Amino acid sequence: MSTPEGTRERLILTAEQLFASKGIESVSLREIARTAGQKNVAAMQYHFGDREGLFTAILEFRMSHIDSYRTSLLQACDADGKGEDIAALLRCLVVPLVEHIRQAGLDSHYIEFLARLQVSYPEFLAEASLTRPWQASVKTISARIHAGMSGTDEQRNQRQLMLGVCMIHSVAAFERGLREGRHDLSELESFKENLIAGLCGMVTAQPL
Hints:
This protein has 10 helices and no strands. It is mainly alpha-helical. It has one domain. α4 (51-79) crosses α5. The longest helix is centred in the first third of the chain and has 29 residues, at 51-79.
C-alpha cells in the first residue's frame, strides 16, 4: 500500500525526469501526475501547491544531501588551512554535483533539471539560493570566492554569475551525454578536474 510520503517522492522523481528530458515549459502538472500513476492531478496540488512549490520540493529533496556533503568538504578545507583557496572552494562546489552523477548513473536527471530551471526561472532559483537552509554552504563558499576575486564589485558579481551558469550547464551536459551514450562514467574524474581548472581560470583571471 502506498503512503503519502511514497507518493510525494514518486511525483518528485517523475517531475525531475520529465523536466530534465522535455524542458520545464513543456511539461504540465497533469502529465507528471499521470506518468507517476496518479489519476487525479489534485495530488500535485495537495503535495506541492503549484509549479514553484514543486520546484522547491525537487531542490530540497536533492540539495539537503548535497549541502551536507558540501559542508563536510568545506570543513575539511578549513581544517587544512585552505578555506580561502579559490581552487579548493571551487572543488567544494563541483564535487558534490559530479558525485551525484557517479552514484545515480543513467538515472541521474537532477543536474539537467537544475540547468533548465536556471534558464526558465532564474529569479526563482536565485531567490532559493539566497534564502533556503539547504543552500547554506553555497552562500558561504560564494562569499569567500567573491572576496578572493579581483576587480570591481560589478565585475566580480558578473563573473560569479558566469561561474554558476558554466558549472551547472557543464555538469548537466555530461549528465545528458551519459544517458545518451556520448559519455562514460570512466570519464567523470578527468571531467571533474578539467571543470575545476577551467572555473578556477575564470575566477582568477585579471579583468581587462
